[in-house]
Fold each of these.
Amino acid sequence: MGRQAPCGRFVVAGRSNGLSDKKCRKLARSVTETYRSTMRDFAQQPILAVWYARLDIAEAVDEYLESLAKPNRKRAKAAFTSSAPDLTRASTRNSLQAIRKLTAVTPMGRRIVSNPPLVIPLDEMTSLDPDQHRQEVTALLTGYRETLQSDRRHLLDHFTITDIAHKIVGVCSVGLRAWIILLEAGAESEGLLLQAKQAVTSVLAEHTGDTTDREQGARVVAGQRIMQASSDIFLGWLSTDAGTGGRHDYDLRQLRDWKVSAEIDQMTPQSLAVYGRMCGWTLARAHARSGDRIAVAAYLGSTTAFDRAVADFAVAYADQNDRDFGALSTAIADGEVTVTHDI
């Protein structure tokens, strides 16, 4: 769903696929209606039933495939079929695929492959002191271990750090520290990639009166553990000030490279609607687990007023997205912004 205006993103996707404004608004309302009705269903269920609720992936995939246009259906079905073994093994594969993609065996042993500006090994970062930051990351791992369950601490103890690199992990994290840490357990095939992302104060803090000086990594991890159906076994956090002149909070997890995502540009209005309902259901479950599901359901109500309001916002969000893209395109054409392709 993403963290910002999920329904707005569906309107953006609809416009990109050539849908009319009327169909885009209808799509946003469909996503919101699914969220609202699912929240109402959760409000009527025992909390344990909500906690154990799972989306039936097989049923959802079948509905999605049937909604595709025939030329795309066969290709999408083949893609899902080929990825099915990966999905069933996902809980045990962990970061092995990421290791194959992001590392290579060198005369000095396995190392993270340099791929600037996305991935830069610590020893290549001439703008900082590698020893100082290696100290910071090593201290980070030492404290992070204590945030894990005892069995996972035992598992982590089999590994030692062999390489560290800085990684660009997403638009929302630009400007923040993000490290990938390669650990090995002796054998070449026994590797583990951890990702440490700097965690900062939530943008909602000033609105909720949260003025405590708590660890932001712990806040992020607590939220993920509550909202996610199954969290990473190495999900943890740490605060460190090792040689940096100030405290930095981090959340850590395995860096995984396996992903299955919908190809938005191939979606018909029907398949976008199916995908939207899946996202609406998933968001409702996250909110039902993390908040007061009964109060939220009561606020949303049984009419379509909330659906219409969110659809209005989604269209406004997409309008702003169009204006921002237009401004960026103009800046690129005028030479004010330099663009790098294929990174």
Note: The chain has two domains: 6-68+267-333, 117-254.
Amino acid sequence: MNQEQWTAVDDYITDQFALSDPVLEAALESTAAAGMPAINVTPSQGRLLAILAQSVNAKSILEIGTLGGYSTILLARVMQPGGKLITLEYVPKHAEVAQANLERAGLTDVVEIRVGVAMESLPQIAAEGHGPFDFVFIDADKVNNPGYFEWSLKLTRPGSLIVVDNVIRKGAVVNPDSEDTYVQGVRRFNEMVAAEPRVSATTIQTVGAKGYDGFALIRVNGN
């Protein structure tokens, strides 16, 4: 097995299950045209996120890391009627592209993009009384994953689901001596989750068009 085959299988899955459409394709194209990194979830991963959000009947969703709004669109589409999604993005240019993509998708009435440092936005969201969130998707800078997890616990309820992307780092997560700050951020996050009695968690390794990585799946059992 190699990257070429992983990508071919992803393409097959995307076609077989009709995981893309013109709105999603336009979101990817606009992201690329803006020179933004191609680090969005794949169509099959995006469908997984949507199914997980549906499984908890999510009406309130928090996303940390918007990029071009690809996963935002997928999650917003499956929210319960009357739902709201708040997504946090550090880079203003990314937020502008995402806003345009959300307008094209007809979702601006249910999605709010907040621009700025997520670790500053999260306490503001709490102070404003938002939440509890039924579903949280964390896909931002991995250095701050421990802080994102702490705030996610504060902003969720028993039964909520927290999903964290890119937690395998091509297998580098097993190296305690790694000098990669993202690897160390993921390792600290893993240690926090493992020691947290209020959650049940696991990590699933993935391969596909984006290479070798994985998701952490965390169910909140109590607060």
Note: The first strand starts at residue 60 and ends at 64.
Amino acid sequence: MILGEDKSKFPSGNALFINLNEEKILIDTNPGISRISRFLRAEFDLSVSDITDIILSHTHLDHGRGLAAIFEQSNAKIHAHPDTLKRCEKKARVGLYAGIQKDQIHHFEAFGSSLGFQDRSYPSNRKVLLHDNDTIIYDEVSLFAHETNAHCLHMLDYEIKDGNLKIILSCDYDFTPVPWYGVPQRGLAVQSFKSAARELVNKNANYIVSSHRINPIPLKNQKEELNRYLHLIDKRTKKAIDLLPSNKPIKLKDVGDFVYPVAEMGEQYSEDYKICAQTWDYYLLLSHLEESWRLGKVKCIESDGDIFLERCIESNQYLTNEVNKLLVNGWAEKTLNEKMPFPLPINSLWKK
């Protein structure tokens, strides 16, 4: 494990390095070229130029920092989902993918510019496209790619096998206090994320390595960690319900800090990051409010122009079966074409 800065908390994160006889494999690049370079020199007497393969999970900032700089020094093969590779080549598409509205993309790019994204293309002969269930086989080690859409569309986590040893890089199924699942699944995001976390634990790996924890989770602790994690997510749904006044409707934007303590961030965070964090906080709140509507605890009474919420209001029920058709399908394609599939309905009106 190559640990990220600030105890690997977002916008930092961990990477994995696999040192084989022929191949030198780096999975995710977030710790950045300086930190990765120091690690390789200290642990293996290697340099960034020795890296032969870069494997990416997805293009969120806490996973792709340093990609361009590391590639320029190594000329390594880049293994990733096709959607991930496309987003590595244009920052604005990453911002839209992360839910930042188009008129606020400049905040995302200012926040993300220090994290290693560049507007550039990678040579086709260095790209290796990965899909769900693909396996990368080296002489001593194999890596099995598993696509899940519960954190973001087309994210790949990796099951790494070395003889009888099995390690899972779980990326953002990390059993930490700030799990992310707000775009674009909305009301199905909560259940999807919980199911994906259960699925990883059910693989019975010797260790789960997350992108945001200092230590791997051994097999004996995984079910206990999972139960604590699921309880945390359920508490968020209860919090979303409790934040709504009992006697009057309230706009989503007026509910207040939900997960991200934006009001308390102060001077140690840039204004650009705080604006992005506020947007992500709204998305998480929206996910839990829609989950609460699905459970019959709250409902939306004004949609703020959101087509999906409007249809739910007209039906007087949360249209669970419509979420994939109306929201998830097309999100990746549209944001690659620099269109936002739906504006964030911050003025939508909710009541218990």
Note: Residues 233-351 form one domain.
Amino acid sequence: MRKPYRVIIWGPGGLGSVCMWEVLQSPAFELVGVRCYGEGKNGVDAGTLLGIEPVGIKASNDIEAMLKIDCDCVIFTARDMGNFNTDEEILRILAAGRNIVTPLPYHNVHLFRDAEFNAKINAACAKGGSVFHATGIDPDLISDRVLMGLTGLCTDITSIKLQENWDSSYTEPELLAIAGFGKTLEEAQAVPLAAAVSTNFLKAISYTVENLLGVKYVRVDETHDYIPAPHDIVSHYITVKAGTVGRLTHRFRCWVEGQEEPFFTMEYNWVMGDEMLPEGVKPKQYWVAEIEGRPSLKMAIDLTASRKHNDRFYNIGKLRTEPGYHGTMAPCMQAIPHICAAKPGVLTSFGTGLHWMKDLRQSV
């Protein structure tokens, strides 16, 4: 059996902290570095950042020092601001010869980013002899592997809809403000960052569906709706006043030739508590998928920290972590052995194997 895969966590925020903890639990991995941003975490032991015993690896904001560490893969979890702010750092890491896996919106990046960026990322991989792969719970695991696997039940499909529903009641105040929760509709719409952050995820999912199912979109429509709370909602960090934003719905709809209704709809719902869930969605249903076809079907995925105890969070050191964060990092960790065995370049999604296609002659 080979030695553990040596990994660097690049960005120890919410996702990165979960990943640090999971890496420390697994015999398949060895944490060898933590790249932090700013001075607050610089020089602090990774265990201390998590609120557990020190582990002997200190966080550093020195990029050059990070790139000198011998590692098999960088797990890139820096904060995405929706404006391609992470592009240059990713290219730099790849060109320095370090493999990357990331849950940021680069899933099947060749399908929705321009030719110039795709040329740059391929050139960086070629220069460093490195591999780049983007995965995560959604895009990829739910929208690609699970949803596309469900189409294997169908001989014909006329429409597909996937909803992701994320309860933001315990989200950090800084992110709540960016999203627009508790603001008037006009105030929230004046801050475009929330919409910008969702856009690349929506594109990655929607264009992967188009590519896998062999359809051709003739029109796409992107909307961002701000839904007011019907009454005051008290959450962990803020009180959302009646009439202010209690739900954000980011939606991408895609039409194919000859259909009045969208063929594919991807919808993100960020909600402030269960009462702001979209109609028909039950509490704890993180994903709801509907396929209209022959046959038609509906699937819901309930995500909890424990089915036995109905826990919502994991208590890790000083952190309380969402099960969705652990689900996001799991595909990243599972991909690392395959990334390390791959030839240099951009490694696209692993996919689901057999599934429905508009014309099955395209499947071979």
Note: The longest strand covers residues 156-167.
